[in-house]
From TrEMBL:
Residues 1-10 have a biased composition (Polar residues). This is Ferric oxidoreductase domain-containing protein. The chain crosses the membrane at residues 42-64, 84-103, 124-143, 155-178, 207-233. Residues 11-23 have a biased composition (Low complexity). It comes from the Bacteria. It comes from Lyngbya confervoides BDU141951. Keywords: Membrane, Transmembrane, Transmembrane helix. Residues 1-36 are annotated as: Disordered.
Length: 234
């Protein structure tokens, strides 16, 4: 074929366009972006665990710094032990307790006798549950000034610690397993099949979630008693 005819054929408007294969950059640009998950990552949960440990540390050191505060500033210590301070911090803590219960309402509200429909996904409210739980530890520290109390209040505080730690450690363990690159995690005693992520997470959840629900139920009963004692018997 002559060169002139060849060039005419290539540039002719009637000739169909050649399909060009997309490059890797085009495919990357056209592919939809993955939406970031709302579930806190393992490193975020570890940071929350360390923050919780720091918030719990003053409860062990409160006899030292409360005596120091009392000796240095009697008026400030008296105000922080007073009725107004306890009312403000107490109702703030109660707000976060109710916020924690929204997750339960979101999961089971439609099965209650008075059906309750909570907007938002369960994943969203689970994250709110986690972060507000850590915030509640800080508010309890502010409310009590780190004092562990006596008798009923001391037991009430330890139940609250159990509620927080069972949930946080359980979520950290589950997330660590999910994000792990390992496929097998040993074997259950008496079983020959290797343990995979699914059965391991279900086994752990049957332990920590059951303990958490029991402690939450006990905590709510003791919270009502605590409020009654604060308003009617003191």
């Amino acid at each position: 074929m002559p060169d002139s005819l060849s060039s005419f054929h290539q540039s002719s408007p009637d000739s169909p366009p050649r399909a060009s294969s997309p490059s890797g950059g085009d495919l990357k640009a056209r592919s939809p972006r993955s939406q970031p998950g709302l579930q806190p990552q393992f490193k975020v949960l570890i940071a929350l665990t360390l923050l919780t440990a720091l918030l719990l540390l003053p409860f062990a050191l409160s006899p030292l710094y409360l005596n120091f505060l009392r000796s240095r500033s009697v008026d400030l210590h008296f105000w922080m032990r007073g009725e107004l301070y306890k009312q403000i911090t107490g109702f703030s803590s109660l707000f976060f307790v109710l916020l924690e219960l929204v997750l339960t309402a979101r999961k089971r509200g439609r099965t209650w006798p008075m059906r309750l429909k909570v907007p938002g996904s369960i994943r969203l409210w689970r994250n709110v549950h986690i972060f507000s739980g850590v915030a509640l530890v800080g508010l309890v520290l502010i409310h009590t000034l780190g004092s562990t109390g006596l008798n009923f209040n001391a037991l009430f505080l330890w139940v609250f610690f159990g509620v927080t730690l069972t949930a946080l450690m359980g979520v950290v363990a589950e997330t660590g397993i999910l994000e792990s690159s390992r496929s097998y995690f040993g074997r259950w005693p008496g079983l020959s099949r290797p343990l995979t992520k699914g059965p391991l997470i279900r086994g752990l959840r049957s332990l920590w979630l059951t303990s958490h629900i029991f402690l939450v139920s006990l905590f709510m009963v003791m919270l009502v008693i605590h409020i009654l004692l604060a308003y009617y018997y003191q």
